[in-house]
Amino acid sequence: MEKSLSNITYDIPPVPDTPVEVIVDLLTKAQDIASYCDNMISDLFLAGQTLKMLIHMSQAKRVLEIGMFTGYGALSMAEALPQDGRLVACELEPYLKEFAQPIFDKSPHGKKINVKTGNAMETLKELATAGEQFDMVFIDADKNNYINYYKFIMDNNMLRLGGVICIDNSLFKARVYLNDTTDSNGLALREFNQFVSNDPRVEQVIVPLRDGLTLIRRVPPCKITDDEVFRGVTGRFILDRMRLDGKVAYVTGAGQGIGRAFAHALGEAGAKVAVVDLDGAKAETVVEELFLKGINAISITADISKSDDVQRMIDTIVSKWGVIHIGCNNAGINMNSASEDTSLEEWDKTFHVNLRGTFMCCQAAGRVMLKQGYGKIINTASMASLIVPHPQKQLSYNTSKAGVVKLTQTLGAEWADRGVRVNCISPGIVDTPLIHSESLRPLVQRWLSDIPAGRLAQVTDLQAAVVYLASDASDYMTGHNLVIEGGQSLW
Ligand SMILES: C[S@@+](CC[C@H](N)C(=O)[O-])C[C@H]1O[C@@H](n2cnc3c(N)ncnc32)[C@H](O)[C@@H]1O
After folding, report:
1. Does an H or E element contain 117, and which?
2. Annotated catalytic sites, by residue?
3. What is the pLDDT of residue 29?
4. Which atom of ligand 1 lies closest to the CA of 138?
5. Would you say the C-alpha torsion 260, 262, 264, 266 has a positive or negative sign?
6. Among 70, 91, 98, which is best to mutate for testing ligand 1, by the most ligand atoms less than 8 A from CB?
7. pLDDT (tens digit, 9 = 90+) per residue, 112-122?
8. Cβ–Cβ under 8 Å, residues 204 and 216
9. How much is the ipTM here?
10. Domains detected in the chain
């Protein structure tokens, strides 16, 4: 057969959301290919649908295809992959890539496919060197090499545990059963099938449909303790357990500084975020930032020292998203004065925001969360709850933040058996615009000499902590004060 598909006219529809039909259409016109494979079109459709189903069922994200041909199978599988799914298609013949690539380029799923031309064995070596591992492998190329592909993949850990290898034509027109066959493909497949059935690393089933379809699953070696540590809790590894996909969060004081960093971190981890601030314009700016990163967000203007505002904040979130999983009560103020001079006005104002306001937020969010039987509250306390930062004088701030820790401990204990966790984060001195005020700037050198880490905290130093406390990974932690201060409280 001449190795060219030049008689095919590339007439790809403007809305190519049906790439499978596009290829079938092209193949119908391509007499050379159609005659090359018996009943190819109808077989293709069944094969494509089966591969697609396998991807869905195995929830594969990384797929390897050995033997791509027209790209029909590759595109069928790509359609079933999630947006961040990837498929490497190995194909010997460059002209087949030339045929398939324009179709991939027109398909919304084509960008998931990376075609590597050349001998598949060489591509496998390249992928193994790069440390690639796959959830599903489809072997559908030169039959005499099936065993080599299989051995290489298994010996080089290229199939993840629980991953699936799918083998096409494994019965090879039943020739594998014929004792006296001299057909080299039949013999190669017989040897392959025998090898796989004796391989303790896998389970296999040969489905005697069409030309035979073998499904192979990698199983754990017997010496492995197959428990949650090995498999992950509910099958999710640690970083997946820290993801917040589908969760609804709010952050108060999120217009700048620590709150803004919290809003970004929670959104990056997958949560929808209500950005709450006294300054509505600042909250809106942060929402715009989140939108640019593809994070679902709303802004709410609220003064958390006012009970009506707090209730409106909670009601707005519930009416918009129906639930609240994560509440970050971060808004706070700090005024400096020597204790003998501290006015009751300063004391009351600080406590109104830092302690009373935080309590009102905890209570209003907690009522929703207790009804849900699930919630994560993360309050922003301060290192000042532990030590007396100096030389600046800030009695009201220190005592209000000590109150936030006790509030957190009490709520944490009280609500633990109803699915609501309450923890707090105590940052050290954070490098925000606030500390660059004229009165505080001269103190920075003095503070630095008190910090073993030798630098101030950046807001980004706190982001992993809020994600951890917001996630299921911290379910056994409640009433905890997580101190992040570069070691300052130790000196
Ligand atoms: C049966 S077709 C694959 C069909 C494809 N998997 C599908 O579902 O649409 C086999 C393909 O394997 C390719 N092939 C054969 N030997 C190969 C090798 N050593 N390395 C890479 N590809 C090879 C052939 O060029 C051919 O395109």
Report:
1. strand 113-117
2. 397
3. 54
4. 6
5. negative
6. 91
7. 999 999 999 99
8. yes
9. 0.96
10. 19-224 (3.40.50.150), 238-490 (3.40.50.720)
